[in-house]
């Protein structure tokens, strides 16, 4: 996640739509490649050929690239696009991706439907505990931001109630309570048989951000991150 306080490059809604149309299917194709890489049973010669082809594609993409990570370079108005984010990033093939949408009637409540495949395995056939934590960190942070109280994770407590199967899951988050720059959020991962992992976390608008906003005399909410 980039927390660069500078304003993002402004792009028009049309340009944003064009970039989304370009990169979303490209990134999805790479996700498919990862899944195919894990599950293929083709013969060794085909693996070697495929490896050479993948290496050629990688070299072509590296002909022009950013110095560092993607950050939150693009935006329209105050909304930034976290396209590199490892959970929701439109341009990150590692991201499942999660697409949180407002739902329910609790403060800041957001839900996301997601299908976790072979790339997210921990125990055989099950979701890795760190992946569940990854999704919950993001959805709780998104709930805090959706309630107008964005912050960074100060702590995240998890209770793994029962194993989480790979496949279709729902991830839910909401705000429990807040005091000034501190927001406590809760959430869970829900499998076919009900909740599997529960989370409770504290999200803090960092001191540097509070000071920046105070210096600006900014009555507006901080920049929105998804
Ligand atoms: C211009 C706008 C900027 C916006 C910035 C936010 C953008 C995010 C928005 C939307 C995101 C949407 C989705 C995101 C999801 C993913 C989230 C992640 O993965 S975040 C990466 C992992 N987390 C870290 O790397 C944090 C590392 N830690 C820190 O940076 C600091 O420790 C931080 C920010 C947590 C606190 O730093 P302090 O500089 O504000 O420090 P002090 O003023 O001492 O603390 C503030 C209050 O918080 C309490 N506090 C801090 N840590 C605590 C803890 N572990 N337990 C309990 N209380 C704690 C303190 O006791 C203090 O309370 P008292 O103000 O006195 O009431």
TrEMBL record:
Query: What class does this enzyme belong to in the EC scheme?
Result: hydrolase
Q: What is its EC number?
A: 3.1.2.2
> Which InterPro entries does its entry note?
HotDog_dom_sf, THEM4/THEM5_acyl-CoA_thioest, Thioestr_dom
Per UniProt, the keywords (alphabetical) are: Apoptosis, Cell membrane, Cell projection, Cytoplasm, Fatty acid metabolism, Hydrolase, Lipid metabolism, Membrane, Transit peptide
Pfam families in the record, alphabetically? Answer: 4HBT
Enumerate the GO terms in the molecular function aspect: hydrolase activity
- Keyword Cytoplasm annotated: yes
Q: Does the keyword Ubl conjugation apply?
A: no
Q: Which segments constitute the Thioesterase domain?
A: 125-183
Q: Which PANTHER family does the protein's record reference?
A: ACYL-COENZYME A THIOESTERASE THEM4
Similarity remark:
Belongs to the THEM4/THEM5 thioesterase family.
Q: What is the protein name for this chain?
A: Acyl-coenzyme A thioesterase THEM4
The source organism is: Nocardioides oceani
């Amino acid at each position: 996640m980039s927390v660069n306080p500078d304003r993002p490059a402004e792009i028009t809604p049309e340009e944003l739509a064009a970039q989304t149309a370009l990169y979303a299917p490209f990134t999805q194709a790479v996700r498919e490649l990862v899944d195919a890489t894990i599950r293929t049973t083709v013969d060794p010669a085909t693996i070697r050929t495929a490896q050479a082809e993948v290496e050629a594609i990688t070299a072509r993409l590296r002909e022009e690239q950013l110095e560092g990570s993607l950050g939150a370079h693009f935006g329209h108005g105050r909304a930034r696009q976290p396209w590199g984010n490892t959970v929701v990033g439109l341009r990150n093939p590692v991201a499942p991706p999660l697409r949180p949408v407002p739902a329910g009637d609790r403060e800041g409540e957001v839900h996301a439907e997601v299908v976790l495949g072979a790339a997210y395995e921990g125990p055989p056939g099950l979701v890795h505990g760190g992946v569940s934590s990854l999704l919950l960190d993001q959805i709780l942070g998104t709930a805090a931001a959706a309630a107008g109280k964005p912050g960074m994770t100060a702590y995240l407590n998890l209770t793994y109630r029962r194993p989480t199967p790979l496949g279709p899951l729902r991830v839910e988050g909401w705000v429990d309570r807040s005091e000034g720059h501190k927001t406590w959020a809760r959430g869970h991962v829900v499998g076919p048989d009900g909740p599997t992992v529960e989370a409770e976390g504290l999200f803090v608008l960092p001191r540097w951000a509070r000071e920046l906003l105070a210096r600006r005399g900014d009555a507006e909410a901080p920049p929105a991150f998804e």
